[in-house]
Amino acid sequence: MRNPTTAQQQKGSAVLLILLVVGIGAVALLVNALNKANMQIERDKITAAALAQAKEALIGYAAGVSLNLTSAPRPGDLPCPDLHALGDALEGSSSTPCNGQALGRLPWKTLKLPDLRDSSGERLWYAVSVNFKNSTRAGTLNSDTAGTITVRDPSGTIAFDGSGTTGAIAVIISPGAALTRQDSVVQSRASAGYNTATNYLDIGNGEDNADFINSGTNGFIQGSIQASGVTILNDKIITISPTDLMPAIEKRVAGEARQCLTEYAAETAPFNNQGRFPWAASLNPALAPSYADVSLSRFGRIPDTPFTNTNTDSGGLMGDIWHGNCNIASTSGWWFDNNWKEMVFYALADAYKPVDPMTAPSCGTCLTVNAPTATANKQIVVFVAGRRLAGVAGGQPRTTDADKGAIANYLENENANGDDIFERSAITSTFNDTTAFSP
């Protein structure tokens, strides 16, 4: 007869062995799950980095557009997508014109980028709003221009509404690995279907990323999305919104206006402006906006040429045209055709106004910009109005002559007070002026 104690020991050992095997299996499963999670995190990092680099390049492209071309360029222009065939000599370059819905691959060569890929080794896709594409251009492009692309979150809720005033300007898409779309299309990544969007972009919650309509609610949806445990959409999307792009564009416009003014003041031949600046075009809510320089006007919009009153009030010594590399044109081009001239304002220190007889100016009391300093040492200040702010009293309408003549409909806080003290600060829901000054 077997010893009961020995039998109990054997039974206990068996239980321990089973527990050990189960524990090892659980640890293995946990390690495997952690490894998969870590791998997915690393893959997501690769995709996120590619999307972020593409977004930065597109914003830089729009802000750095050369204004000396014959193609009527505008600050804010974005390139058309790349629609060239795989292996084409121009593959990676923008395809122009991009009429229709302007959806294709990211033009990485045009953007001077490396051949960006997502974590599945796929090139990025890209769509651009009809209001911002550079060929063929449509409408005007200034601070108030809205994006026209709708983007939804994974639940289907609209985050950017292209049918209203809150649309996205552009989207950049990582297509991810091939899958079977909800319309039963089996995505093929062969060269024959290289530019067929359905082979790369997916459907989720009723939104098809391969088919969008500018200025409508048919747009794009973010991933990932699953149905019955199966991934049906793995497109990763990054957006370019007006708040992403416009501050860079407005800074560019402010710089262009300041350059024109400072080069004008520095002109010595054929006129000698002796460091002085032209009168501003004054505001009058009772009349349509006028861009003629007005005697004694030290605050208003940037004046059109000729600077008749500036020339007269300086005894004919100050010039009546822009000089140097000024890219402001009074009757055509990005400044006039896209109505940036309505959005840009200018303040002039009393010490640097036109005078007769002409003398060399210097700051006693000049203009103040807080920040960088409370010191009154600025000769001129240029302001570019951001888009209308609903959070400001009245909502900043800019439709009627009276609207256009009221500075509070364009500038905020100190900048709308009409004195010689101005403000530069971070963008908020109630302040979005861009400020540049000299010196």
Task: Describe, in plain words, how this protein is organized in 3D.
β6 and β7 form a beta hairpin. It is elongated, with a radius of gyration of 30 Å. It has two domains: 198 residues, no CATH class; 195 residues, no CATH class. α1 packs parallel to α2. The strands form six sheets. Strands 1-2-5-11 form a four-stranded antiparallel beta sheet. Strands 12-13-16-18 form a four-stranded antiparallel beta sheet. The protein is built from six helices and 18 strands. The longest helix is centred in the N-terminal third of the chain and has 60 residues. With 439 residues, the chain is an alpha+beta fold. The relative contact order is 0.09.
Looking at this protein, list some descriptive labels.
single chain; 439 residues; alpha+beta; 4-stranded antiparallel β-sheet; 6 helices; 18 strands; elongated
How are the SSEs placed, and which strands pair?
Layout: H1 4-63, E1 103-105, E2 125-128, E3 151-152, E4 158-160, E5 170-174, E6 203-204, E7 207-208, E8 220-221, E9 225-227, E10 230-233, E11 236-240, H2 242-266, E12 299-301, H3 308-313, H4 333-337, H5 340-343, E13 344-348, E14 367-370, E15 373-378, E16 380-384, H6 401-404, E17 421-423, E18 434-438
Parallel strand pairs: 3-8, 14-17
Antiparallel strand pairs: 1-2, 2-5, 3-4, 5-11, 6-7, 9-10, 12-13, 13-16, 14-15, 16-18
Helix pairs in contact: 1-2
